[in-house]
Amino acid sequence: MLDEKDLQAIDELIARRLGVVVEADIMPKFDLLADGLASVNEKLNALPGPDLLDKMQEELDLHHQMLKRHTKKINALKRAQ
After folding, report:
1. What percent of the chain stands above pLDDT 90?
2. Residues 2-26: pLDDT tens digits?
3. What are φ and ψ of residue 46, in 5° steps?
């Protein structure tokens, strides 16, 4: 039967090995994950805000209306020839 000293030595050995596994295998993966999240956050912060998006949508709508109007005028001129 194992005595208290043997059990303590086994416990320390398991703790050391677990520490090595965490340090060598798990922590680098967490570092990669953190780097990836930082990259995603940078991209999200670079996006235009809602006010700018609204303004851009208004301008796009205006350009779309102008394109329709010009297309109608061009078609009318073609028919008039």
Report:
1. 81
2. 899 989 999 999 999 999 988 999 9
3. -80, -10
Find the largest Cα–Cα distance for the chain. Answer: 108
Residues 28 and 41: their CA atoms lie apart, in Å, by 20
- Core vs surface per residue 56-75: b (16+ CB within 10 A) or e: eeeeeeeeeeeeeeeeeeee
Tell me which residue of 40, 21, 18, 41 sits closest to 29, measured CA to CA: 21
Instruction: Identify the three-state secondary structure at position 55.
Output: helix
How sure is the predictor about 35, in pLDDT bands with cuts at 50, 70 and 90?
very high
**From CA 15, how far away is CA 5, in angstroms rounded?**
15
CA-CA-CA-CA torsion for 60, 66, 67, 68, nearest 10 degrees?
110
